[in-house]
Write a structure and sequence with these properties.
Strand content: 25-35%
CATH topology of the largest domain: Thrombin, subunit H
Oligomer: single chain
Structural class: alpha+beta
CATH superfamily of the largest domain: Trypsin-like serine proteases
Number of domains: 3
Order of helices and strands: HHEHHEEHEEEEEEEEEH
Length: 311
């Protein structure tokens, strides 16, 4: 009789455990499905918005309608480029930006975690921990190191302009000056939709780069300075290919397309004209073409960032 009771108790315990496991599994599956649906809906909304903005931009494009932000075109007599002299003159104002990625094991590494309401979801947090264990994130986190990822340029005092996607997702930042000095840096603020960021560096101010009050015309020479492939202070020359509006970003705005030789790591670097004046910041590229943020727009966004930071 005691054996029968023991068997019944064991069977009941197994049944209860199995039921609890099935309930938890069902909850996790349902949460995962809800997160996947939310991600799909968000992606579809973004794609619809981008298609709409692309259509608007395509309908608006003409030689007369393409703008250069708030700055007029450069009608001064052309100056023959002396690239070595221009590079030497601009380098004291340029920095190489180094960063270290946030730990992989953070819940924020899960894209679903970015959806409002999901951050407090216990199932998402549990699934993230399982994912971290499965992919051995602690071991990967131990391999993290600070590396040069982008460029930047001094504009005033200890403030440096770069682009937002360079500072996004970084746990810590430092800059290296052209003189070889390493300095700690902090992000004052970033506008991801317009791809502009303002950072502050420690130590003595760097000499600010001269800023153009006019924009180069289509076909005029320009030089980009950045950190391609992690190599800081490299230059590439080309011409202004086109002006237009960026329909791919969440906040479509004016941009300047250049043909200067640029690869990953040039982002945030400065583009100068043949007089050594800053005309734009490198954002991202399309093959041989690179989209840059006109300097007047970058400065306007940086001013907004600074105003928000002091409130």
């Amino acid at each position: 009789m005691s054996r029968v009771k023991a068997w019944r108790r064991a069977a009941l315990a197994t049944y209860i455990a199995a039921g609890a496991a099935l309930t938890l599994a069902g909850y996790a599956v349902a949460t995962t499905a809800a997160n996947a649906n939310a991600l799909r809906d968000t992606r579809e909304r973004i794609e619809d918005f981008q298609r709409e903005q692309t259509a608007i931009a395509e309908n608006a494009i003409s030689a007369a309608s393409v703008r250069r932000g708030t700055l007029p075109p450069d009608t001064r007599p052309p100056v023959a480029p002396d690239w070595p002299a221009l590079a030497e003159r601009a380098m004291p104002s340029v920095v190489a930006l180094a960063g270290i990625n946030k730990p992989y094991g953070l819940a924020e590494s899960n894209h679903a975690w970015r959806i409002p309401g999901v951050q407090q979801n216990a199932a998402t947090a549990a699934l993230t921990r399982v994912r971290a264990w499965h992919r051995d994130w602690p071991k990967e986190d131990a391999k993290r190191r600070q590396r040069i990822i982008c460029g930047g340029v001094a504009v005033a005092g200890n403030q440096v302009l770069t682009v937002a996607h360079c500072v996004e997702g970084q746990e810590a930042l430092r800059v290296r000056t052209a003189a070889g000095e390493w300095r700690d840096a902090r992000v004052i603020g970033a506008d991801v939709s317009r791809d502009v960021a303002l950072i502050e560096i420690e130590g003595d101010p760097l000499p600010p780069i001269p800023v153009a009050e006019v924009m180069p015309r289509q076909g005029q020479d320009v030089m980009a300075i950045g950190s391609p492939g992690g190599y800081g202070f490299a230059v590439g020359v080309g011409i202004v290919a086109w002006y237009g509006r960026d329909a791919a970003m969440l906040s479509p705005d004016d941009f300047m397309l250049v043909t200067a030789s640029i690869i990953g790591g040039n982002s945030g670097g400065v583009v100068v004209n043949t007089r050594g004046e800053a005309v734009s910041l490198v954002s991202y590229g399309y093959g041989i073409y690179t989209q840059t943020v006109p300097i007047d727009r970058a400065q306007a966004v940086a001013a907004e960032i600074e105003r928000r930071a002091v409130r």
